[in-house]
Design goal:
This protein has 294 residues and is mainly alpha-helical. The protein is built from 13 helices and 3 strands; from the N terminus they run H-H-H-H-H-H-H-E-E-E-H-H-H-H-H-H. The protein is globular, with a radius of gyration of 22 Å. The chain starts with a helix and ends with a helix.
Length: 294
């Protein structure tokens, strides 16, 4: 099982070109499944559709959310499809299994005022504050995923023409415009902040930690959590909250859905359309609160 798993993960990296974070997610799901099979004294050849359903029920019994169970099933489907493709198995036990239906939740977003308050918190008299301000402004200006933001190198940003080039899911490259405020703040960080942080020779990362190395996703999560606590809002604020706010505010102000899709790096426009539902619900709320005959 371990050898098959390693071959599968190599296939995801080399042939499908998936991002490291996605491959790690597959790996975690399948290692947990391998442990489950070992505890049940089952081999990969003895897996049936019924046993997979039992495993999914086992995950539900452990309290996993529907979305997590669905993700595990997706991992199993890809793995068993690979095993059939490689002639390890003659049939795919996941073939007719469907993911459990989950209720679509509208993403939580900040108001423009809340965004302004959040972005004003970093202390620009400190090196860390200059960096954090630049990262927050970049997130809100571009809608980048946190992994895309922390993965940026100096060569990926053109401050003269105002754009950033990033590598998204599936190693797909896209170019996103930068606003004037983000450009100004980033210039300030690159001039006064980054030179104080950089220590590793040849480190090309834009955003660095206090060791002078590339800031990690986990490191930025801690940073934004600290600022969210200072803001004092009941909303849960994560790096993705700024991505959601970016998309919602663009659409509220008349942006074209296709343009927002391209900036977010969504492969399918149906993923972007959830923001149109969000703007509609907000319009309804505004209408109900303000129209005299609502």
């Amino acid at each position: 099982m371990q050898a098959l798993l390693q071959n599968f993960l190599a296939y995801l990296a080399v042939e499908r070109g998936l991002a490291d974070n996605t491959i790690q997610s597959y790996g975690r799901d399948l290692k947990n499944y391998a442990t489950y099979l070992a505890n049940k004294k089952m081999t990969i050849n003895s897996v049936t559709q019924t046993s997979i359903i039992s495993y999914l029920l086992h995950l539900q019994g452990k309290g996993l959310a529907t979305a997590s169970v669905s993700r595990n099933l997706a991992s199993l489907k890809s793995f068993f499809h690979f095993l059939v493709r490689e002639n390890v198995l003659s049939s795919d036990p996941t073939l007719n299994l469907e993911s459990p239906k989950q209720q679509k939740k509208l993403p939580q977003v900040l108001t423009t005022n809340e965004v302004s308050q959040l972005l004003s918190i970093p202390d620009l008299k400190t090196v860390a504050g200059l960096r954090d301000k630049a990262m927050l402004e970049m997130l809100y200006a571009t809608g980048l995923r946190v992994s895309e933001l922390t993965g940026l190198d100096c060569k990926d940003v053109d401050l003269e023409f105002g754009y950033v080039k990033c590598l998204g899911k599936g190693s797909k490259e896209r170019i996103v415009p930068l606003g004037s405020v983000a450009i100004r703040v980033l210039k300030d960080y690159l001039k006064r902040g980054r030179p104080e942080l950089v220590s590793a020779a040849g480190c090309e990362a834009i955003f660095l930690n206090h060791h002078g190395k590339r800031l990690t996703r986990q490191g930025f999560w801690k940073i934004i959590k600290k600022y969210a606590e200072s803001l004092g809002t009941e909303k849960t604020i994560t790096p993705h909250t700024l991505r959601h706010s970016f998309a919602t505010h663009l659409l509220e102000n008349g942006a074209d859905l296709r343009a927002v899709q391209e900036m977010l790096g969504h492969a399918d426009i149906s993923t972007t359309q959830i923001y149109t539902h969000l703007t509609r619900s907000r319009l309804r709320k505004v209408y109900d609160q303000t129209h005299p005959r609502a």
